[in-house]
Amino acid sequence: MLTTLYNHFTTLYSSISHLSPSLAADHALKQEQEVYKKSTKLTYRNAVIQSVAALKRRSPPTSLSHPSVGTEDDIKLRLDQANSLKSFVLSPFHLQPLVLSTEAMQNWGFMLDIPDGPGGEQPTLEGKLKRCERCTQPFQVSRTGPDTECLYHWGKLQTTKAGGEKVRVYTCCSRPAAESEGCVHGRHVFYESSLQDLHSRHPFSLLRPPSPSSKALDIAAMDCEMIYTTGGFRVARVSLVDARGKEVFDELVRMDDDVYVIDYITRFSGITKENHAKATLTLSSIRKSLDKLINSDTILVGHSLENDLRTMRIVHHKCVDTAVLFPHKAGPPYRRALRDLVRENLGKMIQTGDASTGHSSAEDALASLDLVRWYILDKQKPKGSTSNS
Ligand SMILES: [Zn+2]
Ligand SMILES: [Zn+2]
C-alpha cells in the first residue's frame, strides 16, 4: 500500500522532484500514517485506494508551494485556513498597529506632502525629447510612431545559476544581460518619478476629510494598472475592495485631454486597446467617484501602495502595505512580488494569466487584503504552532 502511494506521489510530483527529491517518499509515508490512524483492519485497504484516487485527481504542481503539494491533511488544513481567512472581517482595531509611521512612509518611498503649485499645467510631453525607459535612447514623444522603433527586453533581470556560476539573465528570453539589446520590438516609452514632473502632468491632492453627511469605508484595499502614454506612465484601471474583500470599485480610466496612449503593455496591465476604448471617466472623475468610498480617515491597504497612490495622485497618511509587512531580506527598495507572497502564505496562485491577459487589479487588491488578514491571524496564533505553507 505504501509503495502504491509512493508511486502515485512520484508521478504527481514528477515536474518538481528536482526541487526536493525526497518529497514523494516523505509525503507517501505521512499519507500512509494519516490513513492508518483513521482506519481499521477492515477499512484500511479501501482507504488507501481512495487516497490514490484523490491523488490522481490533483493537478500537477508547478512549485513546492503549489496547492497540489502535500498529504490530504495538509491540504485540508490549508483549506480550513483559507476559509477562516474569508470569514475574518478586518477592523480598524486590527489595522491601526500596522499603519505606516511617517518615517516608514519616507523609507518606502511614500509621498507625505503635495508638491508646490496648482499642478496639471503640462499633461502631455508630445514633441519633447525624453530618454526611453526600455532602450535608454533619446526619442521625441509622439502619439504615433512605428511599432518597431524600440528594441528591448520586456522581462526583468534575474540572477540564476548556470554551471555553478551566477549569471544575470532576462526573465523574458533567458538571455544574459550583456548579450543582447532586446528580444522584442515596440514603441519608445518614458517613465517619470520626480514628484514635480508628476504633479505637472496631473495634480496631486489629499483625500477629502471625513464629514458627518457622507460616509466612507474605514478600510479599503486598492490596486491600479498603468500604461505608457504621451504624458508618461499613467493609471488606466483602479480597483477597490472593502474589508470583507467585496469589490466596491473597478473602473477603467480615460486619459486626460491631449494625452495619448503609446503602449497598453497588455502582458502586465491586462488592458487592451479594445477594452480601454470603453473607458469614460477621467482620473478627475474617478477621484470624485472615489470620494463616496474613501476619505482621509480610511485605512488603505495595498502592495507597494506608494505606486498606486502616486499614479492616482493621492497623498494619504493611513497606509498598510504588504510589501512592508512581508519585507524582502535585502530591505527597501527591494520588495517581494505579490504573487510569490500569495503562493507562499496562502497557497494560492494569482496572476496566472498568459501574456494576453496580464494582471487584474481587482484580483491583486483582494490578494493584498487576504495577505493582511493572514498576517493578523498568524500573529494571533499561540507561539510554537507553525503555519503549514
Ligand atoms: Zn528578452
Ligand atoms: Zn526605446
- By secondary-structure content and strand pairing, the structural class works out as alpha/beta
- Please describe the biggest sheet, giving its number of strands, its sense, and whether it closes into a barrel: 7 strands, mixed
Helix share of residues?
25-40%
Distance between the termini: 27 Å
* Percent range for β-strand residues: 15-25%
CATH class placement of the domain at 92-117 and 205-380? Alpha Beta
Low-confidence runs of at least 5 consecutive residues = 385-389
Topology as a string of helices (H) and strands (E): HHHHHHEEEEEEHEEEEEHHEHEHEEHHH
Number of helices: 14
Shape label: globular
Instruction: Enter the CATH topology name of the domain at 92-117 and 205-380.
Output: Nucleotidyltransferase, domain 5
CATH superfamily assignment of the domain at 92-117 and 205-380? Answer: Ribonuclease H-like superfamily/Ribonuclease H
Tell me the radius of gyration.
24 Å
The second-level CATH architecture of the domain at 92-117 and 205-380 is 2-Layer Sandwich
**If you average the pLDDT, what whole number results?**
91
Extended strand count: 15
Family: Belongs to the REXO1/REXO3 family.
GO biological process, one term: negative regulation of gene expression
Keywords: Exonuclease, Hydrolase, Nuclease, Nucleus
Pfam family, one: RNase_T
Task: Describe the overall structure.
The protein has helices at residues 2-12, 23-38, 44-57, 72-87, 92-95, 102-107, 195-201, 266-269, 273-276, 283-290, 305-312, 322-325, 338-346, 361-380; strands spanning 129-131, 138-140, 150-152, 157-162, 165-170, 184-186, 205-206, 219-229, 232-242, 247-254, 261-263, 281-282, 299-302, 314-315, 319-321. Helix 1 packs across helix 2 (23-38) and helix 2 (23-38) packs across helix 3. The protein is of the alpha/beta class. The chain has 14 helices and 15 strands. Among the domains are: 2-64, no CATH class; 92-117 and 205-380, 2-Layer Sandwich (Nucleotidyltransferase, domain 5). 34% of the residues lie in helices and 18% in strands. The structure holds zinc ion (2 copies). Residues 132, 134-135, 137, 150, 152, 188 line the site of one zinc ion (ZN).
